[in-house]
Amino acid sequence: MAVSGLATKLKKTDRGLQKLVRIITGILICLTVLFTVYTVIMRYVFDNAPFWGDTVALFANIWLVMMALALAVRTRGQIAMTAFYEMCPPRLSYMMEIVWNTFIIGFGIFLVIHGYENAYAQRTNFFWELGDLSKFWPTLIIPLTGVLLSLAAAAVIVEDFLQLRQKGELERYYEYHAKHK
Fold first, then answer.
1. Which residues contact 94 (CB under 8 A, 6 or more apart)?
2. Which of 27, 35, 102, 109 lies at a CB distance of 3.0 to 4.6 Å from 57, suitable for a disulfide?
3. pLDDT for 56-74, tens place per residue?
């Protein structure tokens, strides 16, 4: 397969994964709101709050935040050193962003390893309010986030590295990425 064909497939996979994460996070925010509103109405209007409502809303919220973190890294929407990048020469800004995302990959790998160890350790603990659901399943978000973070940061590093290899003058970091979203 030619390099351009591989690049096309990788871009398509990247866009598809971003779209999937956006859909899942959209569903999770709706579920968080629905479960919270349902629990509040049942508690204060009918004086009969479901014992599982807060737990499910909490899980949906945690999964939402964790998945959105990976999406923020991929779309360069996370809070980094934006103001500092704008003061630096473009080449230095790209290199600093590569270093920053290398640390994010390391953190993602840490989450995969230790997050799975934690989830595995929770397999014999259960949520009684959710019909004895094993705590393994809700805590799987930690290693999943690690995988998504590592993939997102790696994609950003590749984009920045390719931009650094361009011949000619480099466009300022955030000006370039603002135009190419």
1. 160, 163, 164, 170, 173
2. 35
3. 999 999 999 999 999 999 8
Q: What does DSSP assign to residue 129?
A: G
User: Residue 18 sits in which domain range?
Assistant: 3-179
Q: How many domains does the chain have?
A: 1
Prediction pTM value: 0.82
- Measured in whole angstroms, the distance separating CA 1 from the mean position of its chain's CA atoms is 30
Q: Do 124 and 46 contact (CB within 8 A), yes or no?
A: no
**CA 85 → CA 71, 81, 142, distances in Å?**
21, 6, 30
User: Rounded distance, CA 14 to CA 19, Å?
Assistant: 9
**Residue 149 near residue 104 (C-beta atoms within 8 A):** yes
Tell which phi-psi region holds residue 79, choosing left (phi > 0), alpha (psi between -120 and 50) or beta: beta
CB 143 within 8 A of CB 112: yes
In contact, 40 and 46? CB cutoff 8 Å: no
Measured distance CA(121)–CA(137) in Å, rounded:
11
